[in-house]
Design a protein that fits this description.
2 domains; 366 residues; three-stranded antiparallel β-sheet; Aspartate Aminotransferase, domain 1; seven-stranded mixed β-sheet; binds pyridoxal-5'-phosphate; Aspartate Aminotransferase, domain 2; 13 helices; alpha/beta
């Protein structure tokens, strides 16, 4: 049988492993930070009606520039901003992973570099590898926070072509301050991406999109995969200067957003308030999970997202497997002593807490 190593793979991909969060069909999946609440039935019905209409037109290619969707996204994202946002500043692709890949294709590549502050989203180095961009990981401070000085020093020293600040940060949950974003922007000449995948769960601060005027190198990425409960549709988006959008058009595949994706996303945004109604409960479950785990003796890092990074496990791998055997999936990211747990519904959170309690202090033993 042919092995991967028999193939003439690009040198920078040799020995690399694909993104691989387990996808077991277990009753309780709290491992990839989805919104685990079901979609409201009336929203489902409206999306299905929109899809039915779109199917009638699929003999034709979809709108390559997905104008209607960009207007809908601009309306949604612009809500919290003084001057709003227009569609020329909006872009979208099949998940924010694809948006970020396009950013790397346009602004990264051979001889260029991507810097971020670790631990952070595991896709950043994979996207760097896929585009032959050099990955520059800079450790966060001991409590996983970032300060304006820490960020600015790293950017001044390494002068990357692209930097990504993830806030709230995956997998630590750490929130990101405006002062840190501004210090980063002023410290280097490259593209600064603020990844706001978990923005809606924080609720306490303004979007970095409010900083866009006058900052053409600032890109703010968002997704419908998390708070919006739309992970299966694959829709991520970005707000930036119209010139940045022009750059992304150079690398996107023609018609990359299918007519069905566009129709589903437009319909869902029409119901944004209903789609996001579960966010309040998810925050409450996150805080309940945090309190419950602290009571059991675990160290829970402060989180502005829909998940918690939890320390104090004697063997994260053994606890991961013990919970998996109980039909509960959480995430082992290889951080010593730690596991990441998504806040689910009230019932899921209760079951998880009971299962962890039953393992005894420090969790399962290796
Ligand atoms: C989940 C996540 C994304 C979103 O990925 P999609 O491709 O939009 O599903 C982006 N950034 C971070 C940090 C994430 O955790």
């Amino acid at each position: 049988m042919t092995q991967l190593s028999d193939l003439p793979l690009r040198a920078n991909l040799v020995g690399k492993r694909p993104y691989g969060a387990p996808q077991d069909p277990v009753p309780i999946s709290l491992n990839v930070n989805e919104n685990t609440h079901p979609l409201p039935e009336d929203v489902v019905a409206d999306i299905v009606a929109s899809l039915a209409e779109a199917v009638r037109g699929v003999n034709r290619y979809p709108d390559r520039d997905f104008r209607e969707l960009r207007e809908a996204l601009a309306g949604y994202l612009g809500r919290g901003l003084d001057d709003g946002l227009d569609a020329d500043r909006l872009w979208a692709a099949n998940g924010s992973n694809e948006v970020l890949q396009q950013v790397l294709q346009a602004f990264g590549g051979p001889g260029r570099s991507l810097l971020s502050f670790t631990p952070t989203y595991s896709m950043y180095p994979l996207l760097a590898d896929g585009t032959d961009t050099r990955w520059v990981p800079i450790p966060r401070l001991d409590d996983y926070t970032l300060t304006p000085a820490h960020v600015a020093d790293a950017l001044r020293e390494h002068r990357p072509d692209i930097a990504i600040l993830c806030g709230p940060n995956n997998p630590t949950g750490t929130v990101l301050d405006t002062e840190t974003i501004l210090a980063a922007y002023d410290a280097f000449e490259g593209i600064l991406v603020v990844d706001e995948a978990y923005f809606e769960f924080d609720g306490s601060r303004a979007s970095a999109a409010s900083l866009l005027p006058g900052r053409p190198r600032l890109l703010v990425s968002r997704t419908m995969s998390k708070a919006f409960a739309f992970a299966g549709v694959r829709l991520g988006y970005l707000a930036a200067d119209p010139a940045v959008i022009d750059a992304l058009r150079l690398v996107r595949l023609p018609y990359h957003l299918s007519a069905l994706t566009q129709a589903a996303a437009i319909a869902a945004i029409r119901h944004a308030d209903e789609m996001l109604a579960t966010v309040t409960d998810i925050r409450a479950q996150r805080d309940r999970l945090s309190a419950g785990l602290r009571e059991l003796g675990y160290e829970v890092h402060p989180s502005g997202a829909n998940f918690l990074l939890v320390g104090g496990f004697e063997s994260p791998t053994a606890t991961f497997e013990a919970l998996r055997a109980h039909g509960i999936l959480i995430r082992d990211l290889g951080i010593p002593g730690h596991l990441r747990i998504t806040a689910g519904t009230e019932a899921e959170t209760g079951t998880l807490l009971e299962a962890v309690r039953a393992l005894g202090p420090g969790g399962a033993r290796a």
